[in-house]
Amino acid sequence: MNEPFSAEEIRRYSRHLILPEFGARGQKKLKASRVLVVGAGGLGSPAAMYLAAAGVGTLGLVDFDVVDLSNLQRQLLHGTADVGRSKLASATDTLNALNPHVQVQPHALRLSAENALALFAQYDLVLDGTDNFATRYLINDACVLTGKPNVSASVFRFEGQASVFCTPEGPCYRCLYPEPPPPGLSPSCGEGGVLGIVPGVIGTLQATEAIKVLSGVGQPLIGRLLTFDALEMSFRQFKVKKDASCPVCGPSPSITALIDYEQFCGTRAPPPGAVRDVTPQWLTEHRREVQLLDVREPGEREINVIEGSVCIPMAELAARFNELATTRDLVVYCKVGERSARAVEYLRTVGFERVFNLAGGIERWADEVDEHLPVY
C-alpha cells in the first residue's frame, strides 16, 4: 500500500480501510485533520474518545475545570482516581492511552472573545461540547468569522440535539436561535440534571458528524437539527434554513467581530456590591427572623435543603414572586450563590427592598454549618 500509514496503523484502522465508501482516502483525510473539542465534559468525553479512536491527526481540547465526583456519571474521559485533577490532564492521559498516533493538544483556558479567533484558526473543525448559551454563541460567531464548521450539540435531562453549523452552504446557530432565552429559563445540567447516557449518545453523534465533514463521506447534519428523546427512544429531524437576515452569517452581517457574550445572554455576574450577601453564620443567627427562598429546581431539593425554606425555581420567579412577603427580610439561596444573586437583583426591581443572597449557596452552608448535609 502507498498510504502514509505504518503497519500498526493499517491494522488499527483496518475496519475503516475496508469500507468502500471510506477506505484509505477517508483515513488519510482524518489523519491530516485538526479538530478542536471545546469542553472535556459530558459531550466532549465520547466525542473526543471516538475521534481519537478513529485516527484524527491532531485533537485539541479546551477546558479549565477539575474533575469532580459528580462528573463521573457521564464524563467517561475521567475516572475515580482523577477526582481533583485537571480535566485536561485526565483527558490527555485517556486519549494518549487510547491512540498514541493522535497528537493531543491541551488548551488550559476559558474560551473568550479575546482568544477564540486565534485558537480556532489553528483547526479545521470545532466541536462544541459546552453547556451554556454565552459560550455557544461565542463559538458560533468565531466559527463563522474563521470559516470553520461547528458541530454543535446540547443535552438536558432526558433529551439532546445536534446539528452542523457554519458551513458555507448551511445555517449557523444564530439562524436557529437568533436570541438566547431569558436568564434562568433554561437551567444547566448542573441545575436541572441529565441522564448520564444522553450526552454519550449525543456526543457520539457529534463525533460521527465531525468524521463525515472531515472525510467527505455521507450527508452531514447541515441544515438539519436532530433531536433525541431517551424516554421515548425517539429521534426526530427538523429543517433549519439559512437566515438571510442573520447578523453574523447573512449577506450583510452586523456582527463582524466578537462581542460581549455574557452581556448578550444576560448572564454576567452582578458587580461587587450590587448584591448584598450574607454569610451562613449570619443566617444561623437570624433564621427565625427571615424568609428563606430556594431558587433551585425541585430535584435539587431532594438531595439537600435548608430547613424552613420555600422553593420557587428561578425560571418561575417572575410569575410567582407575589407569593413572598415584602414586609420581612428575604434571604435567597441556590447551589453556589450565582442563581440566587441574579434572583436578588430581579426581586429588587419588583419592590423587594430587604433581600439578601446567601454567599456560596447551600454548598458553603454544608461546609460551614451542617457538615452532614450531602452535596452534589
What secondary-structure arrangement, pairings included, does this model have?
Elements lengths: L6 H6 L1 H4 L5 H10 L1 E5 L5 H11 L3 E6 L23 H12 L4 E6 L7 H5 L4 E4 L4 H14 L3 E7 L2 E7 L7 H4 L12 H4 L4 H19 L8 E6 L4 E6 L21 H5 L11 E2 L1 H7 L4 E4 L3 H4 L8 E2 L5 H4 L9 E4 L4 H12 L5 E4 L2 H8 L8
Parallel strand pairs: 1-2, 1-4, 2-3, 4-5, 9-13, 10-11, 10-12, 12-13
Antiparallel strand pairs: 5-6, 6-7, 7-8
How would you sum up this structure, described in words?
The protein has two domains: 33-265, NAD(P)-binding Rossmann-like Domain (Rossmann fold, 3-Layer(aba) Sandwich); 277-368, Rhodanese-like domain (Oxidized Rhodanese, domain 1). Helices cover 34% and strands 17% of the residues. The protein has 16 helices and 13 strands. The protein has helices at residues 7-12, 14-17, 23-32, 44-54, 87-98, 116-120, 133-146, 173-176, 189-192, 197-215, 261-265, 280-286, 298-301, 317-320, 338-349, 361-368; strands spanning 34-38, 58-63, 103-108, 125-128, 150-156, 159-165, 224-229, 234-239, 277-278, 291-294, 310-311, 330-333, 355-358. The strands form two sheets. An eight-stranded mixed sheet has the order 3-2-1-4-5-6-7-8, with helices on both faces. β10, α13 and β11 (310-311) form a beta-alpha-beta unit. The relative contact order is 0.10.
